[in-house]
Write a structure and sequence with these properties.
By secondary structure, this protein is mainly beta. The protein has two helices and ten strands. The chain has a ten-stranded antiparallel barrel. The longest helix has 19 residues. The chain is elongated and about 90 Å long.
């Protein structure tokens, strides 16, 4: 019975392979030669040149609100895990031919300094914003946002650094026309508990 089953399986496999073989392509018809004296268009049948991609309009719209030099004040979590006063500057601009928004951040809490560079773009296929961030302590973060809602933008990111991994919610509040507020929460237990790691207000 085992031998019979093996033969059946092998036969079905061979039949399946044979049926899966592509059909022999038909011989293409030979194009008719142009009539004597007729003009030949050299461009006819030539492939149209591929248009160069252009940055999403959403990026240009976001830059109208975010581009420029910002000064920020607030508080952040230090090495001792307590919140302390913080001052920072941030420069935001278009980069890489307008496909990304680059933000360069430099902050200080007393003698402790913190820097990061982030790149943000808009993914038209998923209708989401994507962000990549690296800092001066070997840390990195990657995540997405659904975009502006009720005047706020929240990025949900996975973070990694110093041999640890976690989750972060980074929120920018633009409901006040005079300043931009930003805050961040982090979870080290896969979202069970969240702790605020910074909050600040920024002006141009």
């Amino acid at each position: 019975m085992k031998t019979f089953s093996s033969v059946v399986i092998a036969t079905l496999t061979m039949v399946g392979m044979a049926s899966a073989q592509p059909a022999k392509p038909a011989t293409p018809a030979t194009p008719a030669a142009p009539a004597a004296g007729a003009k030949v268009d050299a461009k006819a049948g030539a492939a149209a040149p591929m248009a160069a991609p252009t940055p999403p309009a959403e990026i240009k719209a976001m830059l109208k609100a975010s581009a420029g030099n910002w000064k920020c004040t607030g508080s952040g979590m230090g090495p001792d895990m307590t919140m302390g006063p913080m001052k920072a500057t941030m420069k935001s601009k278009a980069d890489l031919d307008g496909f990304w928004i680059q933000e360069a951040f430099e902050g200080a809490m007393g003698k402790n300094k913190f820097k990061f560079t982030s790149f943000t773009t808009f993914d038209g296929s998923s209708k989401k914003w994507r962000r990549v961030m690296v800092d001066n302590m070997g840390g990195q973060a990657m995540g997405t946002s659904d975009g502006l809602k009720d005047g706020k933008v929240t990025f949900n990111m996975d973070v990694m650094g110093s041999g640890q991994t976690g989750m972060m919610k980074d929120t920018v509040d633009m409901t006040d026309p005079k300043l931009v507020k930003a805050s961040g929460e982090m979870s080290m237990d896969k979202g069970k508990t969240w702790n605020k790691v910074y909050e600040m207000s920024c002006k141009k």
